[in-house]
Design goal:
The chain is an all-alpha fold. The chain has six helices and no strands.
Length: about 110
């Protein structure tokens, strides 16, 4: 057995184990980064030229201070974003390449 194949076997074992845990769980939550939305046309925050912080000041729009002391301003920002996404007919982000290995490991369909 070579080092590369041992690593591959460990990785495949880890995928199968994770898939089993997901398949048998009652509740599963996937925490992802902002980049999972970009293929759906939803901008991330920091990409130069297209990130949300190019158009909005994060301290004014989305800070905890704004949320606590001026929630109407925070929710207005969120409404604006959602309106833009709906008008552009964006679809919710999916991650088939990330899920497909786990599905295949447990034959989940």
């Amino acid at each position: 057995m070579t080092v590369g194949s041992a690593t591959t076997e460990r990785t495949e074992h880890a995928y199968r184990q994770a898939a089993r845990l997901i398949f048998t769980s009652h509740y599963t939550v996937a925490l992802t980064g902002a980049g999972i939305s970009t293929p759906s046309g939803i901008p991330d925050f920091r990409t130069p030229g297209s990130g949300l912080w190019e158009r909005y000041d994060p301290a004014a729009a989305a800070s905890l201070t704004t949320f606590r002391y001026s929630p109407h301003q925070f929710y207005e920002w969120v409404r604006t974003l959602m309106g833009e996404w709906i008008a552009a007919e964006r679809t919710p982000p999916t991650a088939p390449s990330r899920n497909s290995r786990a599905q295949g490991a447990c034959n989940v369909s």
